[in-house]
Structure formats: structure tokens, C-alpha cells
Write a structure and sequence with these properties.
By secondary structure, the protein is an alpha+beta fold. The protein has one domain. Helices cover about 15% and strands about 55% of the residues. The chain is built from one helix and eight strands, in the order ββββαββββ. An eight-stranded antiparallel sheet has the order 1-2-3-4-8-7-6-5, covered by helices on one side.
Length: about 120
């Protein structure tokens, strides 16, 4: 069973098209501190985004830290879910009947995150 500890709620941002974003910091899931963002379209939960928040963020931002974060995300998911069905340079992906979980790095942003999406 996973333990969820919500320490602080940052708030809700509502757009004019019915999208709402709730950000929680820090949530501890299986001993990893994460920032969690829930994304709703009207009343439907569309996506959950998770991002590890650790000591390397204290160093000035750089792409190398985001790649480190990607590896932390990937290892954390593999410890819980096993080997992914898809593995690429950009990250990993697990597909389920209910949706998918992916850990990705985008060099354009540059940012790493875990995304849980429902069908």
C-alpha cells in the first residue's frame, strides 16, 4: 500500500475553458518526495503529473539535473511496476487497460516528469 502525505497545498488555477490544476507539494509516495499536479477538465480527472523534488534542485538549473531526475523517476517506476513495455531515450511508458504511465524528458522545455493518464 502506498502512503500519501500531503504537506502543503499550493492552490488551484482555473482557466477559461474549464481546465483546473491542483498542485500539491510535497507528496511522499513510496519514500520519494514528489510535487503532484492533478489536471481536471470540468469534473473529469484527465491527468496526474508527478515530479521528484530532491537536493539537486538547490544547484542552479541545468539540463543535466533534469536528466538525473528522469533516471530517478524511471528507477522508481521500475521498482514498483517492473520493466516497462516501451523504453526510449526520452523515457519509459507502461500501458494498462485503464490508461498509461510515462516518465519523460523533453529537451525543448527542458523538463522531466511522470504522467499518469486515463482513457
Amino acid at each position: 500500500m502506498y502512503i500519501f502525505i500531503i504537506k502543503l497545498i499550493f492552490g488551484c488555477k482555473i482557466s477559461c475553458h474549464g481546465w483546473r490544476y491542483y498542485t500539491f507539494k510535497l507528496v511522499n509516495i513510496n519514500n520519494l518526495d514528489l510535487v503532484m499536479k492533478l489536471v481536471y477538465n470540468d469534473t473529469n480527472l484527465e491527468m496526474c503529473a508527478l515530479k521528484h523534488y530532491g537536493s539537486f534542485e538547490e544547484i542552479p538549473y541545468c539540463s543535466e539535473n533534469e536528466i538525473k531526475r528522469l533516471h530517478i523517476h524511471n528507477q522508481w517506476l521500475e521498482n514498483m511496476l517492473g520493466k516497462p513495455r516501451e523504453s526510449e531515450d526520452w523515457g519509459i511508458k507502461y500501458k494498462f487497460q485503464w490508461g498509461e504511465i510515462s516518465s519523460v524528458y523533453s529537451p525543448q522545455t527542458p523538463e522531466s516528469a511522470i504522467f499518469i493518464k486515463w482513457l
